[in-house]
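Morning. Coffee machine broken again, so started the prediction first thing and wrote up yesterday's gels while waiting. Chain of 207 residues, entered below exactly as on the submission form.
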Amino acid sequence: MNKKKHDFKKRDNINRKLVFQVMFSILLVVVVICTKQFDNVIAKKIVEFTEEKVSNNLDLSPVVEVISSGLDRSMENISSFFKGEKEYAAPVNGTISNGYGIAEAGDNAYYNHGLDIASNTETVRAISNGKVIIADNNESLANYIVVESEDKKIIYGKLDQFFVEVGDKLKKGDVIGTLDINNQILHIEIWEGGESINPEKFFNVDE
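Came back before lunch.
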């Protein structure tokens, strides 16, 4: 009977220790992420100390990775909110030549599922992180790529050439292709759940 009580108490202590270490690791991850926003000697020392403590705990790397990723995104969203920034970056600098929605081409009207942007430069950049799932050519979009970004699909069309291939992982701001120097128009669409979304909701187009 005493042995059973002892075993139960031992398991209870182990569980308490595990809970404490998980909470401690979460706290340290938060400290690391917040502190890394500042570039000074004290901040670096705190980062080194906390990262060492995390590594000395149990192997909680999966938990820490998920928490860290979520906090990183939260910090980016908070920072963007206060700076008045939108979720994604603009693929080019320029002006919108053809907006989202019903458009006219001569006597005909059609629905433009994206934006046509008259770019000031040849270079086209990824508006978000993602993975290339299509890199191809067709009559309406010319050279184009499709990038999967979380639950959205982003189409970059009217490219002169692209520098990526299927399977490539992209980060926001990566150069993905160029536009024709004689006709620097980028066509971009954002789709979610089978429906197109106005790209202007996600990034600002600046000259």
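The longest strand covers residues 130-138. Going to sketch it on the whiteboard this afternoon.
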